[in-house]
């Protein structure tokens, strides 16, 4: 995959975004760092742990109604159901143990600085925030330092939400329990089926900053420098006392409007828009720059953008429902609604270059296409909105971020492992490193260090072995038994494969979890009906044969020769046949011819056609989704033989395929059997190849001067 390359002309559209034009407001005044260039600390490694989604599995609801599941050691397990986990893009419970394992591993490797690119909590509930603060203080006492950046789950809204809660905490009987904040409508109505406690409210910025200030959000006396986008120091000289005073929430506010950045940027924005901005409010920005050791700058960027919406009430601007969530906004909205942040980043990167600092920038959101530049192909092949493509930054966004002078950035949010880069004709070069989540398949963290000021080393540490990962399994067994014994339709629909409770490692557990997530959610949510049917019924052998099939037998005729290929016309629009169709029995002969061609393709790769049958449908669609999330790490799990088999399938389809005839959004039942499969799955396997042949994402170096990414893992697998 080549990096994104735009010309100067393509940057013209950024005039509204970059705040660089002569009619734009002046940059926010910021505090300069120490002016004398310093020699950076040699090889200071920083661990990046993204999307921890910490849930305090032994937390206290502080409720007499429900305390969780009593355990044999006197604690109460306050956990979500296994079904909830298997239908979510993040685990809620086992990541508690994975987080501790990651911290222990980093500590054992001698790493003392850990950065968190957002979503360190699961929705910022008091129970969970207090729990992660307790864990961080424990490791802080050992000499570790922690530097948080906010994500869209911390906070979930900019201001407190006392109506929030969850429907699916697990009881000792294997059932679900609703637990909500005290202002929830069910609690106000005194619904006896609901547990009401403010331990499940979702806290906004102010409470989070008060509880987590020790972990980067506020200055530490040991820091050599600390600032926010709004910092001003007397005589341009840093002092801890002034930094502490300026860390207050009231000193870190900016104005945001529905249409864009407010404050000093509003007049220019209104002039460009041609009308006044509306729905403007004060908002917290938790960004900061810190120098914890000589020469190392950590730039924690608050890229959350909560835009005032139609429910915004100027008389009650702290009502959480008056703002859109930050999840889909990301850097697209940073460039239009947090222009003070863009100008501050420009200042920081310029000073870092002038002073020879090792700058490490991170935020919760990716700065460019994170799907290995496969986004448009994914939009074309799958259902609208599939794979959360709304969260992919625009091409102009990557250009805008690169124009700040930022050279590399660590993002999270999407829970997967990947790397991409961007270059423009003006000489700007930006690398986006996607740090994987600890709470999904491919669970891992990154260790990043500078070799020199132009070379960055990145290594990915997979969490395959996690102590205590199966500690909660006995409670899930009770849940599984209850669901199997229940005849209630909603319970029957939630039955899950208990085989996950037989997994022997965290790596195996998360791999199985992703298979079930694919089966229970992704296949319905992302795949069109006929594609879902094929993916969930065809093994690798049948797929390879179908890629070679040429027949005039139609989908409508499959019922008359049902034993050949496990497909139906159930997803097709029923259309009457015209002319004289061939006999349905012809499919058997055509299938034999296709089988012979498939055997030759397999043999040319040193494989047998029968070996492809080992790729079950469950394996295939699970592998596809695992590769979306884990990239290079997923191929390592597949192994050499399966990677080779997929490479054969990727090259097996005809050079030109025929689009199926459709009636509305359904394929016609008169399409020949092979047409829809070949046309659609040629696209699927092309996307699959792109995802598995992306920029290095396991062990690699970033050559900032040469503007390239070099793979440092000679044993890595690829679909190339």
General description of the model:
32% of the residues lie in helices and 15% in strands. The protein is built from 22 helices and 24 strands. An eight-stranded mixed sheet has the order 1-17-18-16-15-14-13-10. Strands 6-5-2-19-20-23-24 form a seven-stranded mixed sheet. A three-stranded mixed sheet has the order 7-8-9. A hairpin with a 2-residue loop joins β21 (662-663) and β22. The longest helix has 21 residues, at 506-526.
Strand order within the widest sheet?
Answer: 1-17-18-16-15-14-13-10
What Rg is obtained from the alpha carbons, in whole angstroms?
A: 27 Å
| Uncertain stretches of 5 or more adjacent residues | 1-38
Morphology call: globular
Residue-averaged pLDDT: 93
Oligomer: single chain
Class inferred from helices and paired strands: alpha/beta
Major β-sheet, in short?
Answer: 8 strands, mixed
Give a count of the beta strands, DSSP E runs of length 2 or more. Answer: 24
Distance between the termini: 10 Å
In percent, how much strand structure appears in the residues?
Answer: 5-15%
Instruction: Figure out the total of helices.
Output: 22
What level of helicity do the residues show? Answer: 25-40%
């Amino acid at each position: 995959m080549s990096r994104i390359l735009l010309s100067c002309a393509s940057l013209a559209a950024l005039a509204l975004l970059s705040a660089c034009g002569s009619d734009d407001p002046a940059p926010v005044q910021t505090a300069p760092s120490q002016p004398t260039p310093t020699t950076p600390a040699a090889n200071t490694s920083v661990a990046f742990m993204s999307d921890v989604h910490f849930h305090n599995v032994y937390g206290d609801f502080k409720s007499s109604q429900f305390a969780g599941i009593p355990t044999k050691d006197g604690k109460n397990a306050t956990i979500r159901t296994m079904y909830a986990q298997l239908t979510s893009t993040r685990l809620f419970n086992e990541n508690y143990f994975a987080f501790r394992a990651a911290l222990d591993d980093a500590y054992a490797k001698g790493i003392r600085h850990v950065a968190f690119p957002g979503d360190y909590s699961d929705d910022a509930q008091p129970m969970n925030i207090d729990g992660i603060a307790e864990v961080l203080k424990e490791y802080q006492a050992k000499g570790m330092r922690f530097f948080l950046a906010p994500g869209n789950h911390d906070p979930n809204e900019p201001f407190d939400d006392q109506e929030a809660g969850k429907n699916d905490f697990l009881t000792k009987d294997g059932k679900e329990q609703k637990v909500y904040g005290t202002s929830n409508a069910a609690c106000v109505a005194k619904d006896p089926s609901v547990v009401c406690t403010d331990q499940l409210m979702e806290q906004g910025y102010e409470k989070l900053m008060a509880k987590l200030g020790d972990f980067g959000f506020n200055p530490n006396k040991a820091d050599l420098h600390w600032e926010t986008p709004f910092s001003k120091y007397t005589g341009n000289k840093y002092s801890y006392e002034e930094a502490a005073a300026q860390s207050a929430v009231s000193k870190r506010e900016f104005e945001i409007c529905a249409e864009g950045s407010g404050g000093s940027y509003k007049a220019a924005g209104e002039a460009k828009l041609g009308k006044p901005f509306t729905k403007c409010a004060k908002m917290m920005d938790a960004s900061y720059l810190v120098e914890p050791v000589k020469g190392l700058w950590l730039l924690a960027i608050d890229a959350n953008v909560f835009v005032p919406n139609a429910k915004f009430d100027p008389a009650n601007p702290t009502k959480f429902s008056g703002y859109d969530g930050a999840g889909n906004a990301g850097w697209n909205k940073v460039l239009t609604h947090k222009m003070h942040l863009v100008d501050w980043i420009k200042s920081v990167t310029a000073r870092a270059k002038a002073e020879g600092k090792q700058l490490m920038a991170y935020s919760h959101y990716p700065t460019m296409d994170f799907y290995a530049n496969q986004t448009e192909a994914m939009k074309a092949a799958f259902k609208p909105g599939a794979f959360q493509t709304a969260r992919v930054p625009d091409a102009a966004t990557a250009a805008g971020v690169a124009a700040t002078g930022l050279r590399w950035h660590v993002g999270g949010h999407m829970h997967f492992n990947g790397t991409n880069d961007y270059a423009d004709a003006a000489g700007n070069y930006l690398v986006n490193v996607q740090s994987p989540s600890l709470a999904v398949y491919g669970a891992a963290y990154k260790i990043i260090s500078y070799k020199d000021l132009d070379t960055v080393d990145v290594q990915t540490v997979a969490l395959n072995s996690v102590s205590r990962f199966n500690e909660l399994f006995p409670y899930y067994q009770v849940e599984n038994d209850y669901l199997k014994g229940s005849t209630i339709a909603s319970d029957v629909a939630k039955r899950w494969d208990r085989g996950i409770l037989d997994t022997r490692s965290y790596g195996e557990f998360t791999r199985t979890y992703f298979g079930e997530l694919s089966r229970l959610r992704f296949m319905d949510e992302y795949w069109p009906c006929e594609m879902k049917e094929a993916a969930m019924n065809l093994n690798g052998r049948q797929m390879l044969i179908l890629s070679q099939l040429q027949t005039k037998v139609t989908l409508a005729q499959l019922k008359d020769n049902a034993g050949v290929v496990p497909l139906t016309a159930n997803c097709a629009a029923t259309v009457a046949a015209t002319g004289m169709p061939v006999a349905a029995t012809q499919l058997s002969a055509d299938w034999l011819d296709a089988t012979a061609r498939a055997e030759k393709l397999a043999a040319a790769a040193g494989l047998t056609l029968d070996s492809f049958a080992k790729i079950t449908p469950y394996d295939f669609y699970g592998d596809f989704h695992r590769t979306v999330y884990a990239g290079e790490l997923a191929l390592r799990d597949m192994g050499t033989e399966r990677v080779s088999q997929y490479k054969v399938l990727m090259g097996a389809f005809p050079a030109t395929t025929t689009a199926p005839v459709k009636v509305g959004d359904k394929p016609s039942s008169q399409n020949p059997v092979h047409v829809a499969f070949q046309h659609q799955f040629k696209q699927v396997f092309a996307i699959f190849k792109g995802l598995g042949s992306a920029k290095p994402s396991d062990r690699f170096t970033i050559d900032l001067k040469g503007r390239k990414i070099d793979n440092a893992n000679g044993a890595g697998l690829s679909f190339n």
